[in-house]
Design brief:
The chain is an alpha+beta fold and 415 residues long. It is 58% helix and 13% strand. It contains 15 helices and 13 strands.
């Protein structure tokens, strides 16, 4: 492949590989720039608020700290990890491995570092936090004077850089390591009674025995991660996580996600849907639509779509395999955006904290809603879309005619 080209699967249409035109030194420069911007974004407040001559500034860490002090520890931990700790760790891991690779050396601890990077990528939610800041500004505009602070612009730049760096998957880093000569290239040889499988961490294709898929664990010949031909107990874990998410979805929408105490408006509790209605009545229909889609439509869509996908595999359906694959890719893409309302709540808690005038605190629904987001993301990760295509392959093998065309058909199916 040439730089800029994309390879897709001829059967399901999934993108297999994007050949980036950015060099290894270019990725290192982007990573170091993102680290610098990350420090600036968290060192300065992102938004300021003024009420009767009193002004408060809030950064992400201020919001997390205030939520912890208010007693909502689970919410503080979730937002602190997703918005600060995990993105910082991701950038540190990338810097750790890209610097030696740019000099043609294998980084110390390269294999565990790549496994850590693969686990971190879905949980870094800086873009969601940035959108949460914008929603917070609109929500507070009718109560007080609010305005952007220097950290907001830094978070905007950080979001762009992290979106670019998201294309630098562990598979791509391993490819750079091979091209630089830091690690050897392994070419698998397929023998009788074996099948080819790809490592989910580094992408290395290797031969596994076709008779012991559920037997002893196989370890990747390149990164030592456990390799499965298919995700073990995929359906059982997906159903269990979906059931837990569906149970928590009820209190997440029925209980207040935010409590407001004000000398002007009195004491009130706001649910997610109530916040959407309030934004609509104040004339911010565009922000209301964004919050409605991110906090109501997206989590419900994820749960229902995963139920459809898991049910289709459970019942052996072989229809609409390509659309089902696209549906699964959409679920993976929208997974983290449901955390929007949780970030909005912690920001409002840090900003609107004026003793005797106005206080906003997180409600019990914030933790429940955050857990719904996490459980639906884990359910999507547990589901194996290849299982539906396995059923199609087994069905096509059973329906083949017993004539001279069997060999050609088998060869085509294997390819």
């Amino acid at each position: 492949m040439q730089p800029g080209e994309t390879a897709t699967c001829s059967r399901c249409g999934t993108i297999l590989w994007r050949y980036s035109s950015v060099s290894l030194s270019g990725w290192l420069a982007l990573t170091l720039a993102a680290l610098i911007v990350f420090v600036v974004a968290n060192a300065y407040p992102v938004i300021s608020m003024s009420v009767q001559g009193m002004t408060r500034d809030a950064s992400l860490l201020d919001a997390v700290s205030m939520t912890w002090q208010q007693g909502y520890n689970a919410t503080a931990i979730m937002t602190g990890l997703a918005g600060f700790a995990l993105p910082l760790l991701q950038l540190c891991v990338l810097s750790w491995v890209l610097w030696p690779l740019s000099q043609g050396r294998e980084p110390l601890g390269f294999r565990p570092a790549m496994r850590i990077l693969g686990m971190l990528r879905p949980w870094c939610m800086v873009p969601v936090f940035l959108l949460g800041v914008l929603v917070s500004v609109v929500k507070l505009a009718g109560m007080a004077a609010v305005g952007p602070a220097p950290g907001l612009y830094a978070f905007g730049a950080l979001t762009v850089l992290l979106t670019i760096l998201d294309r630098l998957s562990p598979h791509a880093v391993w490819r750079f390591a091979e091209q630089s000569g830091a690690v050897p290239v392994h070419v698998p040889s397929l023998e009788q009674g074996q099948v080819l499988a790809g490592c989910h961490v580094c992408g290395q294709v290797q031969a596994l025995s076709s008779h012991d898929h559920d037997g002893p664990a196989h370890h990747c010949v390149r990164c030592s991660a456990v390799v499965h031909y298919r995700k073990p107990n995929s359906l059982a874990r997906t159903w269990a996580l979906l059931l837990a998410a569906a149970v928590l979805y009820v209190p997440a929408n029925m209980l207040p996600i935010m409590n407001i105490s004000s000398i002007f408006l009195g004491d009130s509790g706001h649910t997610i849907l109530g916040g959407v209605v309030e934004l609509w009545h104040t004339g911010s229909w565009d922000i209301a639509l964004i919050v409605f889609v991110a906090s109501i439509v997206v989590p419900l869509t994820k749960i229902l779509a995963l139920v459809v996908l898991a049910g289709a595999v459970q019942w052996g359906s072989q229809f609409n395999l390509r659309p089902r694959t696209r549906l699964y890719e959409m679920i993976e893409f929208i997974g983290q955006w449901s955390m929007l309302d949780v970030f909005v709540v912690i920001l409002l808690s840090a900003l609107a904290h004026f003793q005797g005038i106005m206080e906003i605190s997180a409600g019990p629904a914030a933790g429940a809603f955050g857990l719904v987001v996490i459980l639906t993301m884990l359910a999507a990760m547990s589901f194996d879309p290849r299982s539906a295509w396995d059923q199609e392959s087994r069905g096509s093998r059973r329906s083949r005619p017993a004539d001279g065309n069997i060999r050609a058909a088998t060869g085509q199916n294997t390819a």
